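Posting for a labmate who doesn't have an account.
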Amino acid sequence: MRNKIVFSLAFLGVCAGCVAAYLFANEKPPQAPLFNPVVNPYAHGIYAEGIVESDQPSGENISVYPEVAGTVKAILVAEGQPVRKGQALLLIDDSIQRATVEQQESQAQAARTLLDELRAQPRKETLDVAKAQVDAARASLKTAEDELLKQQAAYEANPKSISKDALDGAANSAAVAGANLDVAQKQLDLVKAGAWVYDINNQEKQYNALLKAHASSSALLAKYTLHAPRDGVVMAVNVTPGSFVSPQGAWDQYTQGMAPVLTLGSSQAWLNVRCYVDEILIPRVPPPSQIKGQLSVRGSGVEIPLEFVRVQPFVSPKIELSDQREERVDVRVLPLIFRVRKPADVNLYPGLLVDVYIGQ
């Protein structure tokens, strides 16, 4: 019985081996590639990595950053929307700055009122009071002088009729009244002269300083509204209402870094392709008048001829390509800019990485 079991298992093993050998011996035909590999169209062409940008007369896409920090209050545009130069794009909460502007405006108005008051002197009512004080002092002097004359006449008629002290007291009263009249007259002259020119100049400078502080605060208040620096199209909005933004931009939770609040580009009818030629291949770049280019969209097999625009004559670190600061920076690249009309049957968007062949 045991021999039968061993024989059966051996037979099953032989059968399984034969089946496996048959299955593995039949090779499956390879699957057809999704797209044909990119072929260098030029006899001596060089390869460069490129990135699609919106068509700009110079530079790259416009990254919009605020000049102040705060919480986003409202977003006034949408991605893909055309905008005009000066159009409001985004509002940042400006409640504190607006209160500061209103406070400084009130302070400037108060300083202006005080300046007008100084320039309007003398005030009629104050002048009338000063004149009345002169009249009262003059009347007091007249009374004191009359009393002195009476005392002197009595003393001359009969020296025993009045004491020497009484006569001296009357003389002193007349002298005091005369001094009071002199003070009142000088006070009247001071009132008539109006405000001192130095007081007016000082108040005028304070008013001008407050005006400039108000103008500065108003200019800062305007920074809480982001405006389009030029005509273009909104390419990306990287914030939502309630997000905190600063002059460094807004925090991007996906890249874990700071990103521009908005990105503006130009019309989508034309696109730029900025490609980066490795420093080793720079000597092989043709003269600008002979440069030609071809774009290949990765993963599609699409090949599009490019129109050469310009060379950016500055060899920059390779981090321009990926913005990875931990990447080696001793490898440098030369930027070349091409131009292409956006094809109707191919999806090309700014930010897309493409392959570029450069020849002549």
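Reply:
Got it, the structure tokens are right above this. Residues 54 and 322 are 18 Å apart (CA to CA).
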